[in-house]
Amino acid sequence: MDTVLQALAQGIAIGGVYALVALALTIVYAVTRLLNFAHGDLMAVAMYLAVVFSERLSWGPYSAVSVIAPLMFLLGLALFYGIFARVLRAKILLVVQITLGLAFVIQNGLLIAFTANYRTVPTVLTGQRWFLGSVVLPAPLVVAFLVSVVLAVGLFLLLGRTDFGRAVRAVAQDADAAALCGLNVRRVQALVFSGALLVLGLVGPMLTPVFILEPSMGLHLTLVSFIVFILGGTSNFLGTLLAGIIIGLAEAFGSLYMQPPALAAVVPYVIFILVLLVRPRGVLGGA
Hints:
Layout: H1 2-32, H2 39-57, H3 61-82, H4 92-114, E1 129-132, E2 135-138, H5 139-161, H6 163-173, H7 175-180, H8 185-207, H9 217-231, H10 237-257, H11 267-278
Helix pairs in contact: 1-5, 1-6, 1-8, 1-9, 1-10, 2-3, 2-4, 2-8, 2-9, 3-8, 5-6, 5-8, 6-8, 9-10
């Protein structure tokens, strides 16, 4: 039972982080109808920026995030107006090709800049364990989970109780009607896209003590994000959060019970297929 509780707690913790990363992807899709296949690689950029701050300035990721997050927001503005704004009404295949191309550019840029060597970022919490009864969790993972919870709550409050949130929901529902009502749709889309990268800039450095960094890691992050995004219903925010927890639990229990443990990586994809066979619109339905 203790082992099951351990896997349950760890699955919820990593699932909460997955949910927030996928939530950023979900909001961008809801507002722009763009599928960003470079989403995970952009998160990898934020994580490698933490490496730079750690190695060059001796800043830990928890302090470096105050600089990395704004940098990611500015990168989001540059990418949106430089690339994504030009293809908002393009065919879906063209958007997929462009974002995949961006992903390859980022991966090879990271490979050139940092080589293929694995990297870790030490923090003041590295090696520390927090105890919840019989459950033992790495302190950096708990911090990343708590930050994800705070950000998710803040995001829901922003969308539900502010004028900007109402503008976002209006554009997500019908961009043309929102424009006729006087909303600057392009500005809302730019801020949402940049805000999604801001979220990656906040979460990415928090995960550097948890993950082993290598230049192609963005592919895994993108695949997980899209699994959660689709299982959640593509535009259902609560569904995305639930799907993230499901995938986190699938990874945790897969590592516990699958033999050899390497097969655990297959479990999220099996669950993905099974859920879509039963509920093709996602765990809670979607647009």
